[in-house]
Design goal:
MarR family transcriptional regulator; mainly beta; 302 residues; 13% helix; elongated; 4 helices
């Protein structure tokens, strides 16, 4: 049963505002008893029992059924719960919109510096260290992408209902630093922006090639990047975090996303010190250790 706090629901509240009636409900929830038997058990007059049963029946909490020979009737529960709806939603119901973004489906890429390149599951796209490869139509087949410096931006449409509110947004992607060939101890700093709002940064500890990636093709040279770390970036009600560790105080309310027609994620290689850049490698579903592209989840309320 669903009720609210309007006068239309008052009879339900009144029906429950009695120790006698609550005891009646407790008994008939587990047993089949007549009004006479209730009166005897509760040591109350049958008239008083009948009056209280009538109040519960009027509130549609109970009804009466007859036994097999129709000679006796007994009260039964009509409901097993009552939900009260208050005017203001303190804990709104969340919905989720999920997106799967291939790593080659970037919206913009700028200031790329070699070493850099793209490869599909079966072959290189153009040549190693050819910046023009990032503007090729073949880039959409990319399953691994690497840059030493630069910025890359992905875009997803804001397909939420016009009156909805974005409560949280998260991205999940497999990533590593970038070093010519590879280096398991090569650190990199990566900054993140959502809709051009800076939200924080993380450090990637290496560009891994100690073992072959679970999904890295056999033809890929073993001394090249094999896999990355699966990083979980989340902007929520309290802060921005990577893998549940807070990286900034930026909250979802700071971004004003609900009024935007699109949502963008930008990543930029930041200097470790002076002019030293650790680079960025991204892995698609057919490279690395995780069978996935970039995943984006947008949580919203009505």
């Amino acid at each position: 049963m669903d009720i609210d706090i309007s006068p239309n629901s008052l009879h339900v509240y009144q029906a429950l505002d009695s120790e006698v009636r609550l005891e009646i409900l407790e008994i008939i929830s587990g047993e089949t008893v007549t009004a006479t038997e209730l009166a005897q058990r509760m040591n109350i007059s049958k008239a008083a029992i009948s009056k209280n049963l009538h109040i519960l029946e009027k509130a549609n909490i109970i009804s009466f059924k007859k036994n097999a020979d129709s000679r006796k009737s007994y009260p039964v529960m009509n409901i097993d719960q009552i939900n009260i709806h208050f005017p203001q939603k303190i804990f709104p119901e969340y919905h989720k919109k999920a997106y799967d973004i291939p790593i080659g489906n970037y919206f913009a890429i700028n200031h790329v510096v070699p070493s850099c390149g793209l490869s599909s599951e079966s072959s290189l796209i153009s040549k190693m260290d050819d910046v023009n490869a990032f503007f090729s139509a073949e880039r959409f087949r990319s399953q691994i992408l690497w840059i030493t410096q630069g910025t890359i931006e992905y875009i997803i449409p804001n397909e939420l209902p016009s009156d909805s509110k974005i409560e949280m947004i998260e991205f999940e992607l497999e990533m590593a630093s970038e070093f010519p060939l590879s280096n398991n101890n090569w650190h990199s700093r990566i900054g993140f922006w959502i809709n051009d709002n800076y939200i924080g940064e993380t450090e990637l500890p290496g560009n891994y090639s100690d073992v072959q990636g679970n999904y890295t093709p056999d033809w890929w040279p073993e001394k090249f990047s094999q896999y990355g770390l699966l990083k979980h970036l989340r902007v929520g009600e309290l802060d921005t975090s990577i893998d549940s560790n807070s990286i900034s105080n930026v909250k979802i309310s700071d971004l004003n996303l609900s009024d935007s027609s699109r949502l963008t994620l930008k990543m930029s290689v930041l200097p470790i010190k002076n002019d030293v850049y650790g680079g960025l490698t991204l892995f698609g579903e057919h490279f690395g250790n995780h069978r996935q592209n970039i995943k984006a989840n947008v949580y919203y309320s009505d």
